[in-house]
């Protein structure tokens, strides 16, 4: 049974899910070879000598495991604390052409003892896994992860209490979420994404910032997960052979690389690069996980197959599978699907070559992820969340796409956004001038729901990253309570018009106003490609507002949301997951198609926790707010007026409003 089948339930063990996949189909045979009766013979580090020869096993095309000759170049001892690396030279002409290949991670390497040399693929003892390589090299030098370290990883597999939450409900998750949002911000900078299109990203960062308790926390996060992966091309750096994941577009691949490479996955793209099912004529029957075979990690499956792939290093007598020879996340317990796979072909490049691979049959669950590699078992314990993406594209009607996405607090937000943006352009590219309306809901465990309702003008399908990734990352990586994604429904409607407008002028009916009176505001907006349009709104001055000069700002949604962050910091200080989800929903409720008129008042409000006490008398303020207060803080109150339009509003203008009593008593209106 292939992974393109969509299980209808959520959060169940995959074994149960498969039972529902298609009526009348027999259960699939497990895609795992019978475990050996005895462990594979190994050669310890202290036995490896320069010049020894042997072979490796990997799949170059299809599913057939093939040997390739190798020779030991050196052993670098103490490359890390109690760590060593074996360096070999691959002598196969295919690898000489391609250099080290991403997707060969985990390929088992065997050495012959003196006098034992045989044909490649025969005899020898296992020394470890193909794991590291150099870019821009003239000969294929490969770093081998010693098998001793990998077996230690296998020994730590916890079959009884698998967990995808290595960090648990700690501030570590918030640090990881902040790192992800910082990378997304760097992507926005590189692509010149407008402030209005990144406003939710900016507000989500403000929501997470108070949860990072100290500068030291931030520095620990940078040590643990770098801001951006290194650009290896042309530098000749040694690096782990990341797991390739094929996506159709080079532009999508380059955008996702900074988000996924810190998690051990690199995106590769080009026309038709999505792996999909195996082609006709490829022998895929009875493929098992065994040393040298493809080990695929299905990440999104259904109407789209997104999987990362490496190679099996060893299968232990108890059925534990060892693979990759390097980490994905490197933080211990994980819970991701493990499947057999196939290879379309290898793409040789001047920098780092890669395999274009796909998934075949479910084989179990990856349960341990460490620096030396990953380990999985035949137990099928992982869970998935269903994604339903409805797309209404001009000329195509409405199309529904169904997927399942793996449950992982770091991977799921990016994968969900990727599935959405790929769905939007599945039938055709967007019109040059376009607006995308997006609504739906994100459901999490504990009954938490985030509702979506936004518009993206001229942003392209990539806008899905900036709409979906911030709320998903904030929810799934919050430090208050571990939340899993239960389901996603996203409805998108594409309009072949650029519905965007810029504020070009505004006028107040009067610059001087008495307390309790209304300020009339006229705003002129120039829609894209059209004549200027006029809008009206009003802002009411509080009756008890003291005389003075106040600032009134007329703006679009991005400035308005920025004002909320600046004037009401207490709202962004959450103490529970309920607080956080409530605030995330408030952020998402700020609509781009409104003109906002905001009158900034003196700093006279007091917030106790997140509860606001507005317009207090000075005596009451002095009683509540003291220098030693730990729960009360001042905030800047505002009064607002809003008017809806049919376009995303950009720009801002500022005015000074003179509040004068002029001998009249304040009036209520």
TrEMBL record:
Classification via PROSITE patterns = SPOIVB
Tell me which positions the record assigns to the signal sequence. Answer: 1-33
Q: Where is the composition biased (Basic and acidic residues)?
A: 216-235
What protein name applies here?
Peptidase S55 domain-containing protein
User: Which residues are in the Peptidase S55 domain?
Assistant: 1-166
Chain segments carrying region Disordered: 214-236
Output the InterPro entries linked to this UniProt entry: Peptidase_S55
| Keywords, comma-separated and alphabetical | Signal
């Amino acid at each position: 049974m292939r992974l393109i089948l969509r299980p209808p339930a959520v959060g169940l063990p995959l074994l149960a899910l498969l039972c529902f996949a298609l009526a009348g189909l027999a259960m699939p045979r497990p895609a795992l070879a019978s475990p050996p009766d005895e462990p594979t013979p190994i050669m310890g580090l202290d036995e490896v000598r320069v010049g020894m020869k042997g072979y490796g096993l990997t799949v170059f095309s299809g599913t057939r495991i093939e040997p390739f000759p190798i020779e030991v170049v050196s052993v670098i001892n103490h490359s890390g604390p109690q760590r060593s690396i074996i360096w070999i030279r691959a002598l196969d002409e295919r690898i000489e052409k391609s250099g080290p290949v991403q997707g060969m991670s985990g390929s088992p390497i065997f050495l012959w003892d003196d006098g034992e040399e045989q044909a490649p693929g025969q005899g020898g003892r296992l020394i470890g896994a193909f794991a590291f390589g150099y870019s821009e090299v003239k000969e294929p030098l490969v770093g081998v992860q010693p098998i001793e370290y990998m077996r230690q990883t296998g020994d730590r597999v916890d079959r009884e209490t698998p967990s995808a939450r290595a960090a648990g409900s700690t501030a570590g998750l918030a640090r990881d979420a902040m790192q992800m949002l910082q990378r997304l911000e760097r992507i926005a900078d590189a692509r010149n994404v407008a402030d209005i299109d990144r406003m939710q990203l900016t507000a989500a960062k403000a929501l997470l910032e108070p949860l990072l308790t100290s500068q030291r926390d931030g520095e620990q996060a940078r040590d643990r997960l770098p801001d951006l992966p290194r650009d290896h091309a042309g530098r000749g750096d040694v690096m782990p052979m990341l797991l390739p994941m094929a996506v159709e577009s080079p532009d999508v691949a380059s955008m996702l690389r900074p988000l996924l490479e810190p998690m051990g996955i690199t995106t590769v793209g080009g026309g038709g690069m999505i792996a999909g099912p195996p082609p006709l004529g490829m022998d895929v029957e009875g493929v098992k996980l065994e040393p040298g075979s493809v080990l695929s990690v299905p990440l999104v499956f259904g109407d789209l197959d997104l999987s990362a792939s490496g190679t099996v290093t060893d299968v232990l007598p108890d059925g534990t599978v060892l693979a990759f020879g390097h980490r994905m996340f490197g933080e211990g317990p994980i819970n991701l699907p493990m499947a057999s796979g196939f290879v379309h072909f290898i793409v040789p490049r001047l920098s780092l070559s890669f395999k274009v691979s796909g998934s075949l049959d479910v084989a179990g669950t990856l349960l341990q992820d460490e620096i030396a590699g990953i380990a999985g078992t035949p137990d099928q314990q992982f869970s998935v969340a269903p994604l339903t993406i409805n797309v209404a594209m001009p000329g195509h009607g409405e199309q529904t796409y169904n997927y399942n996405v793996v449950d992982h607090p770091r991977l799921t937000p990016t994968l969900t956004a990727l599935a959405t943006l790929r769905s939007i352009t599945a039938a055709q590219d967007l019109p040059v001038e376009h607006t995308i309306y997006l609504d739906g809901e994100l459901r999490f465990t504990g009954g938490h729901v985030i509702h979506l309702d936004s518009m993206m003008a001229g942003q392209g399908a990539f806008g899905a990253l900036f709409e979906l990734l911030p709320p998903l990352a904030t929810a799934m990586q919050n430090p208050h309570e571990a939340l899993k994604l239960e389901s996603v429904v996203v409805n998108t409607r594409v309009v072949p018009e650029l519905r965007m407008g810029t504020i070009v002028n505004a006028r107040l009916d009067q610059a001087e106003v008495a307390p309790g009176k209304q300020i009339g505001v006229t705003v002129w907006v120039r829609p894209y490609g059209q004549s200027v349009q006029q809008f009206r709104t009003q802002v009411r001055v509080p009756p008890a507002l003291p005389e003075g000069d106040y600032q009134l700002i007329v703006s679009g949604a991005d400035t308005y949301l920025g004002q909320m962050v600046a004037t009401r910091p207490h709202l962004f200080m959450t103490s529970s997951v309920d607080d956080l989800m409530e605030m995330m929903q408030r952020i998402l409720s700020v609509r781009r198609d409104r003109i906002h008129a905001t009158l900034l008042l003196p700093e006279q409000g007091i917030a106790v926790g997140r509860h606001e006490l507005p317009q207090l008398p000075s005596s009451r303020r002095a009683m509540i707010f003291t220098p030693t207060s730990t729960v009360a803080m001042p905030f800047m109150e505002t009064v607002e007026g809003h008017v809806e339009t049919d376009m995303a509003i950009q720009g801002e203008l500022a005015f000074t409003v003179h509040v004068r009593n002029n001998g009249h008593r304040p009036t209520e209106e």
